[in-house]
Structures are given as C-alpha cells and as structure tokens.
Design brief:
Bound molecules: 3,4-dihydroxyphenylalanine
Order of helices and strands: HHHHHHEEHEHEEHEEEHEHH
Strand content: 15-25%
CATH superfamily of the largest domain: Bira Bifunctional Protein, Domain 2
Number of domains: 2
Number of strands: 9
Radius of gyration: 42 Å
Low-confidence stretches: none
Helix content: 40-55%
CATH architecture of the largest domain: 2-Layer Sandwich
Number of helices: 12
Mean pLDDT: 92
Largest sheet: 7 strands, mixed
CATH class of the largest domain: Alpha Beta
Amino acid sequence: MTSAALESFLAELERLRDAAAASLAAAVDAAAVEQARIEFVGARSGRLKAVQKMLGGIAAADKPEAGKRFNDVKAAIAELFAAAQDRTAAAADAPGAVIDVTLPGVTVPLGHLHPVTQTIRRVQEIMAGLGFESVDGPEVEDPWHNFEALAISPEHPARDPLDNFYLAVARAADPLLLRSQTSTVQIRVMESRRPPLRIVSLGRVYRPDTADATHYPMFHQVEGLLVEPGTTMAHLKSVLRLFASSFLRGDVRVRFRPSFFPFTEPSVEVDMEWGGRWVEMGGAGMVDPAVLEAVGYDPAAVSGFAFGLGVERIAARRHGVDDIRDFYRNDVRFLRQF
Ligand code: DAH
C-alpha cells in the first residue's frame, strides 16, 4: 500500500514531466529552450529542485521507490532538453528560419551607362549603318602620329610643348604625349590598310585647357575617315547630314564654313542647325594629298574626307546640357537623367 505522501509526490513528478514536455515542445528557438531549462531544472529555483525537496517527507519504506521514480523523471526531462536543443540549433541553420518571406524585398539599385558612353555607342551604331567600322587608337602617342603625319609643322602653334601633355617617363629622343586629337587614328589606320576605307574612332583627347562650361582638359572626339576613289565634299556633307539627323532626331541641316586644318584641303567648320540656331560641332575637310602621300597612298588614285566632332558637344546638344563639366562631376542626380 502506498502512503498518501508517496502518492502526491508521484503525482507531482508526473505533472512536472508533462509540463516540461509541453514547454519544450512549444520552444521555437534556443532562447525559449534556455528559458524552460531555468524554469524546470534551474539549480536554485527550478521546479525539479522543489519536487526533490518533497523527498524528505516520504516515509523511509517508500524512499527507494520515490528515489527511483524521481531519477527516471529527471533523466526523461534531460533527454527532452537535449532533443529540444538539437531541434532549435538545426532550425537556426536552416535558411528558412532567418528569411521572412513576407517582408518586402530589398531593391538592388541598377546603374546604367554614363551619358558619354551612351553617346559613343549611339554614334558607333549610326556610323555602322553607314558602313563605317569602329576602330581604336592609343591615347599615348608619338609626335609623328599626333603632328607630323597630319602635316602639323614644327612651327605650328599646336606644337608648343606647353600646349600638350608630354610624358616625363619618355626618353627625350623619343617623346610621347597624350594625344590632343583623334585624327591620329586616321594615320594609324591608313598606315596599316589599303583603301577603300570607312572608319570611325571615338576616344579621349587631352589639352591643357582651363575647365569652363565648354572646355575640359580631357574630352572625347569622334573621328571619321573615308578614302575611296572619287570621294567629294558632297559625300562628306551627306554623311554628316545623315549622321546629324539620326543622332539629333529630325531633319537636321548641316552648314560648312571655310576654315583651316593642316591635314585637310579644303577645310571647313561643321555647324548643325539646332533649335533654330547654328551650333559648331567640329571640323572636317578633304584629306590633304600630302597626308595621303605620307602614309603611302596615291593621291591621284584615291581621295578621302575626314571629320572630327566633339562627343560632349553633340551629347550636350542632344540632351540640353549647358555645362560639359556636369558630365564629369559624377553627381548621380545628374547622371540618373540619361
Ligand atoms: N582634329 C581636329 C581638332 O581636334 C578636328 C578635325 C578637323 C578633325 C578636321 C578632322 C578634320 O578629321 O578633317 O581640332
């Protein structure tokens, strides 16, 4: 026969085991398991400890039975803890546990090409449609390609050492400079190929200009060159007009004004009509026979035209930008508009 004290002790043990099992089953993370651990098996005021104290009131004859049952429940609760700890640790590692799919997503900001790069690509596209292949040339040049082959004589003001960026690392006998114009690429292409030729080259050029709304020490040019038998100024004007109409959209008129460039004869300034005004976009002309000869072409057999336009200038016109420095400030509020 079991005594009343033993009965209530065993009932209390049952309750304790059930409560611990329920509590651990409900624990969703390590913190909740720890909370339950303190409540049930905490060394100072855990509920198991309180039940253990009841052992003192049990009759000596019932003690072995009570002690055994107490140890069974204690072991069962320890097992439940171990299982709960494993479960919550595994859940913390699972990706589903840390990603709340109901939260709004984080938008990754998408960039886009710089307006100057966009302009370069658009020009290449339009000129490709007219049969012009896009080629590259070096930004570090020798005086032959930057000046001599383009018939820019040693006395020409453009040759002033202070008007150019010479490289200090180059040997005095073999000077090198940052190219001041993309016309250098005309020479590089003609030196390595035979006519007929239709090329464009777009890239950076450098001049020691003070930066203002229309100048910058580094800017970009579009160089165009066509060499074929029978080329005339009429072809030049048609190509520029087709280009202007495509790039600026609409039927854009082109005007030539007499000018001088050492490597073209005759030479012209190119204006495009824009918003009811004539805007200067660059220079052009028929390739000077002296230049054709310098690269080994026969001026009696072929003729050509060349043109050079400012990339920032045409981009500014197209987008209504009135200060080219905005292209280089890297202010995203400006760049975002393109
Ligand atoms: N290279 C000239 C400059 O930078 C622009 C130019 C003029 C290019 C006439 C040409 C040309 O190809 O034919 O001022």
